[in-house]
Amino acid sequence: MATAKKATAKAPAAAKKAPAANSGFMKPLTPSPQLAAIIGSKPMPRTEVTKKVWEYIKAHKLQDAANKRNINADAKLKEIFKKPQVSMFEMTKLISGHLS
Q1: Could you report the per-residue pLDDT of 1-51, keeping only the tens digit for each?
Q2: DSSP 89
Q3: Which residues pair with 6 in a beta bridge?
Q4: 37-46 burial, b if ≥16 CB within 10 A, otherwise e?
Q5: Rounded to an integer, what distance in angstroms lies between the CA atom of residue 40 and that of residue 53?
Q6: CA-CA distance, 31 to 41, in Å (whole number)?
Q7: Which residue has the higher pLDDT, 8 or 92?
Q8: pLDDT by residue (tens digit) across 55-88?
Q9: Distance of alpha carbon 53 from alpha carbon 60, whole angstroms
Q10: 3-state class (DSSP) for residue 70
Q11: The domain that contains 37 carries what CATH number?
């Protein structure tokens, strides 16, 4: 009988539907005009925005040579970052302010 209770206890847990994985990251967001100058104006998920910004950083060789965790801003990135250099951890926070 004890095994029957355990089996019933597990049944409702198995019946629960799992939430959509990373639904917040996959929601398309519209970039600000400053960010659109770098990644385009088409709405896209946060993950894609970050990927496109990194493509821009690497294409323009904006990673700091001494410390690869820092990004040196060019004119376009300076409009988003508001300072000449940011860490890659700071970057995602600053970019999120340019998404709606």
Answers
A1: 555 555 555 555 545 554 555 566 688 999 999 999 999 999 999 999 999
A2: H
A3: none
A4: bbbeeeebbb
A5: 10
A6: 6
A7: 92
A8: 999 999 999 999 999 999 999 999 999 999 999 9
A9: 11
A10: strand
A11: 1.10.245.10
Instruction: Please give the tally of structural domains in the chain.
Output: 1
Residue 83 is classified by DSSP as S
User: Which token pair is 19?
Assistant: 């939430």
Q: Give the span between the Cα atoms of 78 and 40, in whole angstroms.
A: 17
Tokens coding 7: 């089996």
Would 39 be classed as within a structural domain? Answer: yes
pLDDT at residue 65 in the model: 92
Of the candidates 43, 48, 39, 46, the residue with the CA atom closest to the CA atom of residue 77: 39
The token duo for 98 is 């340019």
* Domain span at 54: 26-96
